Amino acid sequence: MAQNYDLIIRGGLVVDGTGSAPVQQDIAVRDGRIVAIGNITESGAEEIDATDRIVTPGFVDVHTHYDGQAVWSEEMAPSSSHGVTTAVMGNCGVGFAPCRQEDHDMLINVMEGVEDIPGVVMAEGLPWNWETFPEYLDVVDKGQRDIDVAVYLPHSPLRVYAMGERGANREPATAEDLERMRNLSREAIEAGAIGFATSRLSIHKTADGGSIPTFQTDVDELTAICGGMADAGAGTFQIVLDAFVGFDREYPVIEAVVSETGRPVTFTLASGNDAPPRWRKVLTMMEETNAANDGDARVTGQVMPRPIGIIEGLELSVHPFIMCPSWQKIADLPLDEKVAAMRDPELRQALITEEPDPGHPFNELGRNWRWLYPLDDPPDYAPPADQSLEALAAARGCTPQDIAYDRFLETEGKGLLLGALGNYENNSLDSVHEMLSHPHCIPALGDGGAHYGAICDASFSTFLLTHWVKGNQPKQFDLPGAIHMLTQKPARTVGLHDRGVLKVGAKADINVINLDALRLHLPEIVHDLPAGGRRLHQRATGYDATIVSGEIIRRFDDATGARPGKLVRGVQQAA
Questions:
Q1: H/E stretch holding 85
Q2: Rounded alpha-carbon distances, angstroms, from residue 121 to 75, 124, 337
Q3: How many angstroms separate the CA atoms of 445 and 436, rounded?
Q4: Can you give the residue ranges of the Amidohydrolase domain (predicted)?
Q5: Are residues 211 and 72 in the same domain?
Q6: Do 241 and 384 share a domain, yes or no?
Q7: What pLDDT, on the 0 to 100 scale, is given for residue 328?
Q8: Contact between residue 239 and residue 253 where contact means Cβ atoms under 8 Å apart
Q9: Which has the closest alpha carbon to 28: 13, 16, 46, 52?
Q10: CA 428, 434, 437 angle in degrees (round to 5)?
Q11: Element (H or E) spanning 124, and its range?
Q12: Contact in structure between 131 and 69 (CB atoms under 8 Å)
C-alpha cells in the first residue's frame, strides 16, 4: 500500500508551543512540513510510537556562538543534544565576518578572550575563505549540519572592517564611518542576517586583556547600524548591556535605538547574587517601552533558567589556583602528573597560601568561595548554602582553598566546581522564576559553541524541564508554559514565525520526549575540536527523537547522522 506521509508520530501528548493545553494526537509530516494533526489512519514511510511521551516543537535557542563550529563541524552540540533545532549565532557582537585577511588575528584575539575559544582552534578550523558578511553566509549555507542556524551581523568585525585600526582601538566613528556601517548593515540583512549584535560588557575582553572594539560605543553608532536594518525593513538588535554599571542605568541605550530606528531589541538580563534587585526596575522599563511602541518594536529580556556561572576544574580554563605563581611550575604537565605534583606538601602550602596574580576576570571570579560549590552527577544547579566551599570550610575549620585542593586530589584531578555568579539571590532561583514568568522575557544565554573550557549552559532547555516542570520546589512552570518559552516565544523574538509551533503548515521541527526519564548528566570534557582542542559537553537522557525538517537527527539520545540543518536567511513568515 502506498504510504501517504514521510513520517507519522503516533499517540503522543502534543504540547503545541502556543501555551495551550496538551492534547493526545498524531502528527504527519511530508516534505519537511507538518501536513496533518489529529487521528491519522493512513501510513507513513517511517513512524514513531509516542505513547506516554510528550511531543513538542523543536526548541529555539536565540543566544549561541556556533559561528566557528557551524563551519568546522556538522553537529551543533551540545545544543542539538537538548532538543534545540534552531540556533542563532553571532551574539555579543563577536564573529568572523566581515573581515579582511590582515584582520584575522585580531578577530581570533577577540573571540578567544570573549568566548574562550582557543586561538589555534579558530586558526586551523576555519578556512577564512570569505571577506564580506554575505560571503560568510554563503560558506555557512554550503555546509552540512544537524540543525538550522541563523546569524547576527557582529559589531566587532563590522567596526574593524569599516574603520580599520581606528575601529579596533575604539576611536569614535566619523560621519563617513557611520554611513559605511549603516550600508553594510543593510547589505547584511538583505543577504540573510537575522539582525545585528553588540556588547557593552566590561568583562568582555580580548585574549590579551584589552577592551573589545565595541565597548562603550556611542549610541549614535548603534542607531546608525540599526538604521541599516530599518532601511532593509527587517532585523533584531541583540545587545549585552554592562551589568557592572547596572542594567537599569544602561537601559536608555535600548530606548534610544527603539525610538530612533523602530527595530526590536533583545538583551541579556540577570540578577546579581548580592546587588540590589535592579532587574525588577528593568522589567518595568521594558513594559513601558513596549506599551509605547506598537508593532514590531518590542524589547525582550534573555534570562538563563539557572545560575549564571562557570565550571571550574584542573583541565578547564578556570580553577582556584590557576593564577597562583606556583601553578606555573606544573601548568603544562599532563593531568596525572599535575595531581602527583599537587600531592607534594610544599607545593600544596604554596598554592593554598599564595595570592593569585591579576588576570582574566573569570579567574578572579573563580575564587568567590561563597558561591562556589562541588558539581557532581547528577549535577545540582541549585545547591544549598551549606554546600558552598566557604560553608564547607567553616564547618571543617579550614580554608576554602583546602576544600578545593582536597577535592581535586580525591578525584584524581577530575572533580568539577560550579561557580554560581549570578541569578542566585539568597541561594535561590526565585528571581529567575519571576523574570521568566514575565511576558517580555525568554530563556536563553546558553552560549553554545563558546566558553569551551568554562561554561556548559547550552543544556538549559533540559534543565528548564527537569527543574522547573518536574522538580519539587514550590515555584514551578506548567508544561505548556515551559514549552512555549522554549519554542514559539523565542522564535517570535527573532522573527522566525515558521517554527516553534505544531500546526499544519509549520516547519516539521519536533521533539518526542520521555519526560519521566528526562535527566541531565554531569558535564564532561571531550577533545573533538580542530587541532585536538577540548571542550565541555553535557548529555541528556530522555529525548526519544529530535526531528529537523521532517528528518530524525537524534534517536534515543544518539545522533543518527542525518544532516537536514540549513542556514536560515532572515525573517521567516508563518505558514
A1: strand 84-89
A2: 16, 5, 25
A3: 13
A4: 46-553
A5: yes
A6: no
A7: 94
A8: yes
A9: 46
A10: 135
A11: helix 119-125
A12: no
What is the SS3 assignment for 37? strand
- Examine residue 106 and state whether it is found in any structural domain, yes or no: yes
- The last residue of one of the domains, among 403, 422, 441, is 422
Is the residue at 546 inside a domain? yes
All 3 cell numbers of residue 563? 544532516
Residue 440 covered by a domain: yes
Residue in the structure block whose three cell numbers are 564573529: 95
List beta partners, residue 548. 551
Residue at 503 is within a domain: no
Residues in a beta bridge with 239: 198, 267
Q: What value, to the nearest 5°, has the Cα angle with vertex 376 and ends 373 and 381?
A: 55
Enter the pTM of the model: 0.96
Q: What per-residue confidence (pLDDT) applies to 363?
A: 64
Mean pLDDT of the chain: 94
> What secondary structure does DSSP assign to 122-186, as a single string?
HHHH------SHHHHHHHHHHS-BSSEEEEEEEHHHHHHHHHTHHHHTTPPPPHHHHHHHHHHHH
Give me the amino acid identity at 74: E
What is the count of structural domains for the chain? 3
Alpha-carbon span 89 to 149, nearest angstrom: 7
Residues 374 and 482 in one domain: no
The pLDDT of residue 1 is 44
Domain residues for the domain of 15 are 5-57+511-559
Low-confidence ranges of the chain (pLDDT < 70): 1-2, 206-207, 275, 295-296, 359-364
Cell of 504: 499544519
Phi, psi of 66 (to 5 degrees): -85, 20
HSE at residue 331, side-chain half, CA atoms within 13 A, is 13
CA angle 512, 518, 521 (to 5 degrees): 125
Phi-psi region of 38 (alpha: psi -120 to 50; beta: other; left: phi over 0): left
The grid cell for 189 is: 540583512
